[in-house]
Amino acid sequence: MATNYDVKADVYSKPLCAPKGTANTRRPNNTAFKQQRLPAWKPILTASTMMPSFFIVGLIFIPIGIGILVTSNNIQETEIDYTGTEASSPCNKCLSPVVTPCICTINFTLKEAFKGNVYMYYGLSNFYQNHRHYVKSRDDSQLSGNTKALLNPSRECEPYRRNEDKPIAPCGAIANSVFNDTLELFWIANESDPTPIPIPLKKKGIVWWTDKNVKFRNPPGKGSLEERFNGTTKPPSWHKPVYMLDSEDDNNGFINEDFIVWMRTAALPTFRKLYRRIDRKNDSQPTLPAGQYYLNITYNYPVHSFHGRKRMVLSTISWMGGKNSFLGIAYITVGSISFLLGVAISSLYCLRALLSYISFSTWRPRMPLKRS
Amino acid sequence: MDWQRYWQGLEVPTPRTIYINDPLRNSFCPNWISTAKYSKWSFLPRYLYLQFSKAANAFFLFISILQQVPDMSPTGKYTTLLPLMVILIISGIKEILEDYKRHMADRLVNTKTTLVLRQSSWDRIMWQEVNVGDIIKALNGEFLPADMVLISSSEPQSMCYIATSNLDGETNLKIRQALPETAGMQTEQQLLNISGKIECEGPNRHFSCFTGTLHITDRSPVPIGPDQVLLRGTQLRNTQWIIGIVVYTGFESKLMQNAVKSLLKRSKVEKVTNVQILALLLLLLAMSLVSFVGSLFWDRANRAGMWYLSKEGGKSSSFGFDILVFIILYHNLIPISLLVTLEIVKFIQAQFINWDEDMHDEKSGLHAMARTSNLNEELGQVKYLFSDKTGTLTCNVMTFKKCTIAGIPYGQSSSCELDDPALLANIKNGHPTEEYIKEFFFLLCMCHTVFPERDGNNMIYHASSPDEAALVKGAKNLGFVFTMRTPHAVTIEALGEEYTFEVLNILEFSSDRKRMSVIVRTPAGQLRLYCKGADTVIYERLSKDSLFMAETLTHLEHFAMEGLRTLCVAYTDLAEEEYQHWLMDYKSASTVIQGRIQRLEACYDAIEKEFLLLGATAIEDLLQAHVPETISALLKASIKIWILTGDKQETAIHIAYSCKLISGHMPRILLNANSVQETHHMIHQNCQDLGDMLDKENDVALIIDGETLKYAMSFGVKTKFLNLALSCRAVLCCRLSPLQKAEIVEMVKKNVRAITLAIGDGANDVGMIQTAHVGVGISGNEGMQATNNSDYAIAQFSYLEKLLLVHGAWNYFRVTKCILYCFYKNVVLYIIGLWFTFVNGFSGQALFERWCFSLYNMFFTSLPPFTLGIFEQCCSQKNLLKHPQLYTISQKGKIFNTRVFWVECMNALGHSFILFWFPTKMLMHDMVLQHGFTTNYLFLGNFIYTYAVVTVCLKAGLEMMSWTKFSHLAIWGSIIIWLVFFTVYSYLWPTIPVAPEMSGQANMILTCPYFWLGFIIVPTTCLINDILWKVMRNTYKRSPLENVRQLESSKVKGFEFSSVLEKRMTATNLQMSLAAPQPHEFILRNNSVDLSAPHGYAFSQTESAVITQEELVHYYNTLVSERKGS
């Protein structure tokens, strides 16, 4: 059987023909650390200690999940696919590369009014912005306004690095493939008056603050933007050079917000990007009243070659962003599982206690354990 | 250093000529030794070579080189190189620290001093300056600096005594004698005038061989043999000084030649780890191949229409190039920091061993010393313990503890030495047995070959046998003081009166005779023969008139049961003419050329008869402190203990009894045979007797001697012998040569899949210490040989208990948890890359920023493995010592094996799945930010990365059984370090041109409510499964460890729970013992089995030495040596 033997007590206490050690004279540097006697918390996860945790997790997660789900469901969102691959679609005509520029109009109805700020996104599918060859094909130095990099872009931009012996600004495949459809939104205030009222779309304030102010800078210099970009050429797919993206100076060149949004490459092949903001007017009036709308599309961006799709999304935003029920469902599911596990463990625990009680009272006396 | 040895190994030793007093003509290796691994200059190349010969490091070097290829690396150019460099530098610093210690130890040896004849005077120089051909003078008690030929000594017949325990572990003093031709050369002038040379064989490793010739000018050459050679490492004893000529120095000395290069020992855990690394490498290749094949198909199906992708695909589609991209992407699956983490962890574990005050010997001031840190966890897995006896289990100190005189036993078991008031009273008060008592002690003072030396009022006894010294000393304490020995007389002072006995003959001891006798003439003029010897041989020769035979025999048995070594003493009176007659016979016998020994023994036998029994002595071979307790604890930890000793069988059995390895009723199988056939037959017979119980643990002791072992180890018998030995609870192997000790260890190591540990203190144990998985040296007693070749050095055998049960068990838990955790955390993070590959067109894009990617192991998750490896405690040391059974958990290796490893990997795979897909689904529409901003791939990456760091850190907490303040620091600290780093890192661009893609991430992510919601749910989801698993285990499938832990934690202030614990442990043990097969009764019939109670017999003395004991005694004159001394 286990002895009550303790090395320490032994070494110092019994002077059996052995030198009488000065008991427990530890030198000052013998700290708890060196002797491995640091105070420690030694948790043991057993059914009885963990049962409450399972219930608590369940009880906390389920309400959170419900809260998220409700918030998500309250967000208004509408999605219009305007790829035009179906023959019935008004944009079908634009699939042919002959028609340039091609403008098509899709009308749709908002059954409910959108309150608060409304955001307009474009969505692409089957577009691999996360492909390795695509992600790396940019020069952040150039985009941050570095003059050296402007004229001599990084090798990563190949093959969109130089065109006709001139450095491309902005270089790289990402910039080259920038989304260039134009979307406009019109509201038909009432059926009788067919004159559509254009919805004011704000093109500024759609990017991260750091992008606009830190990461993307136009080349320094006193002259006009065109002068500052002197010596560079536009990406091959672009129709106009980078310094002619917008009429306003604070939205032109590298700091053009549409351009910046595009440059933030998405994680998945199906993604959305912020296109425009529709600010609410005042509290009494919804930003987008219910009713008929026209979506006017200047169709430039080809996606059918890679079986992609294009969509326009209108959405309100809550504290947790756009509509997405996943997290709410996840919370509810995990919470429920945890709760059920708690129930299962505690019932097993009780069952076992019961069984052991029964076996103790019936079996124990007959067991020949006494002979130890 | 080993290359030097390598060279020596190739060298065929050529004979050498040493010119005396002509130093310029002797050029041999210096006496400087080094046991260090590196020198200043060899450090860098050798270190790099060693590091890159490790597969993992070579792999990372390969990856680092690959990353330099333009366009190849998805994770940047230096992201592997930098961590690799950091790791190499850290382990380099560790190597330097360790090697520095070795250099210091070497310096200590090399700078010891000795006297050398230089320029006509004795100069004190350092050992390292000694050269071959130097004439050296060594003083009493000094260690000899090199191998030398004895020229002369201070003693008569130019003898000297040396202690060779450093070389062969034998503790009796050896006698060496100079050649008569040189014996007179003692003064400086005489020595300087010697001209001539010594021719001898080249350096070799055989201690007992030496052939040489001394040529002195103008004289005929004389042969030199081993009797004239004094080896490095031996100690001069009982001799005032000796003068010798150095023949072998430094690495060429026999001592160093025997110190074979210790092979790098790898622990079992390390081997398993290496296999798993290889398995992971294969997994990595498989993943790369799958991704590559995926990319081929994906490209073929989709690439054509993807106008937005740069059209450089043509260049990169070559098979080798693309697959390398994936290998680089996934290479972190193999934990780069594992090796260096383990090195540091083990280094600190070794420090804990060094620091341990419980393993600090107050007497010698020695701490335990971990000389290697490779084997820390192996200490937790020991199954077979091979122990030396002398100096390891015993102190090699004999104490005369009890005696029986005229049928009355004396001596109390509690006292240290024989000091029974009853005995003294009986002498003084004229007890009826008074005469017997006096005669008994006269005998003890007379019948021996001990030399007395007066040191002031105290007597110092020099004896070649510690038993004899103990008896003489014991007699002295009781007032019978042996004071003087002259060539033909012995003077004793008995109770104040002085008696002088004339010593006529000494009938020598030999292990066949098992007795020694002296013939003396008492002061009264009576011829008397005193004899002491084993009970069996004495009883055979007792006369019919002898009294107290039955009582003495009973007492002998009692003594023997207590583990004391017993000797019977008897005397007989001789008639004058009978003696004269015998003397003639004896003289003729001692001049016979052939068969002299046999003739002499027959002659001795003729006069040793008709004894009258006086009584018996009982000597305690003093065990080291707490050896029986330690052994019983180790046995409880189901460690099997084998005693391997060079000593005699009887002694070994006795020690086994007194340290409770063998109990009194235990049957003993004795294997003593003279041929292979006989051995085979005996082993076979015993195996058959055991029958079904073979291969199970039986309560039987197996005892075998070296001679028989030689046969037992021969081909064909070996397997059976091993089976038999493994079926016995205790195994004693006696009279073994150092090589045989190593052979036995090797046999067990090879044939049994279990960890072996060898512990010893002498140079004769070096072989087994080096052979065993773990070698432990006892430091302090017998020189440094064993210590210097061991992996761990402790001062006392009893410290083994703490070393194994506490440090071993802890280290095993620590190392294995640390390894498993390192694998786990790497698999978790880097498998995510594979999941991402499925959604990014198999392009090999990394989801994380490149430096985050590579600093994961270096910073953000580096602390938890350290806390697991350093501070983890499965339960308190008190309980580990209290319940040695807990040791079996680590012993069986349940915590870490291939199955556990893959379960952990699957778990990690599950975690990585959750870690990737949860955030991916959360960010499905890229719309989680305020103001409607959209996100990018790195936004998702940082979500996942943060959750992964949190999950992995919490998982460490879950694995931790003991949370110290450092654990909190590591777990919460790691998470905070990441968040802080992440924040800072996001603001670097473009001020510092690094990580442009991280710019702005932190303030968007950390202010995003979605992130914090995920922060709670994702790690919870990952770990809920682990928690559930643990809960189920701890509740329903509890191991003894959990029981102990439970009770430990339920310790409320002042609540005494040991009784509860006892009860629980009783129940557990009962279950255990019920499960284990009950020891069956079986009958061992054959004659090799000894069922009798053990008989005590112990006597060790030099046999067949250069000088016979009789001559020796006759040469000695106390008066002469005292004159010389003064």
From TrEMBL, chain A:
The chain crosses the membrane at residues 50-70, 339-360. It comes from the Eukaryota. Belongs to the CDC50/LEM3 family. InterPro entries: CDC50/LEM3_fam. Keywords: Cell membrane, Cytoplasmic vesicle, Disulfide bond, Glycoprotein, Golgi apparatus, Lipid transport, Membrane, Transmembrane, Transmembrane helix, Transport. Pfam families: CDC50. It is found in: Apical cell membrane; Cytoplasmic vesicle, Secretory vesicle membrane; Golgi apparatus; Membrane. GO terms for cellular component: apical plasma membrane; endoplasmic reticulum; Golgi apparatus; transport vesicle membrane. One of its GO terms (biological process) is phospholipid translocation. The keyword Disulfide bond applies. This is Cell cycle control protein. It is a multi-pass membrane protein. The lineage of its organism: Eukaryota, Metazoa, Chordata, Craniata, Vertebrata.
Automatic annotation (TrEMBL), chain B:
GO terms for biological process: neuron development; phospholipid translocation. Residues 788-1037 form the P-type ATPase C-terminal domain. It is a multi-pass membrane protein. Its EC number is 7.6.2.1. CDD domains: P-type_ATPase_APLT_Dnf-like. It is found in: Endomembrane system; Golgi apparatus; Membrane. One of its GO terms (cellular component) is plasma membrane. Residues 18-81 form the P-type ATPase N-terminal domain. ATP binds at D388, K389, T390, E468, F509, K532, R565, T645, G646, D647, R735, K741, N764, D765. Mg(2+) binds at D388, T390, D761, D765. This is Phospholipid-transporting ATPase. It comes from Chinchilla lanigera (Long-tailed chinchilla).
